[in-house]
Amino acid sequence: MAEKMEKNLAYVFMAESKAAVRKEAFARMANGEGYSGIAFV
Asked: Tell me, what DSSP letter sits at residue 35?
């Protein structure tokens, strides 16, 4: 049971990390295109 929990936690951490990277890239793109208000949402 603990092994499955560790795998699930590792998966969730990886998914959230990828999401944060995508959000950061989107924010930089929006800011570069003049949508600074969207960049900080």
From this structure: -
* Helix, strand, or coil (residue 39): helix
Containing 38, the helix (H) or strand (E) segment is: helix 36-39
Cα radius of gyration (the chain): 15
pLDDT tens string 24-34: 999 999 999 99
Segment holding 22, helix H or strand E: helix 2-32
Q: What is the rounded CA–CA span in Å between residue 28 and residue 33?
A: 9
Domain map (residue ranges) of the chain: 2-39
What residues contact residue 31 under an 8 Å CB cut-off, 6+ apart?
A: 39
Q: DSSP letter for 41, please.
A: -
